[in-house]
């Protein structure tokens, strides 16, 4: 995302950045999510609004879910997969991910 903001004028415009303005470091978003906005619903509200706009513009239909498993070791095979419908709201999913990340960081002696 940081690279896209550096190179894509549309992202700069959306964020109110000029062509020569410094782009925030990629860790800024993560830091804000974990600390500054920890006990607020702002990220959930932003996420929900983006999804609603994507649905209204027929960009998503809710038939397939693809997740980023950055913190999970994977044994991926593009020819072997299982489609599965998940009935879980996004807040519970984010809470579950945050808890798993915190446990992994603690297990590996990293800062929370």
From TrEMBL:
The record lists the organism as Paenibacillus physcomitrellae
Q: Which Pfam families match?
A: DUF772
Q: What's the protein called, per UniProt?
A: Transposase InsH N-terminal domain-containing protein
The record, for InterPro entries, names: Transposase_InsH_N
Tell me which residues make up the Transposase InsH N-terminal domain: 1-34
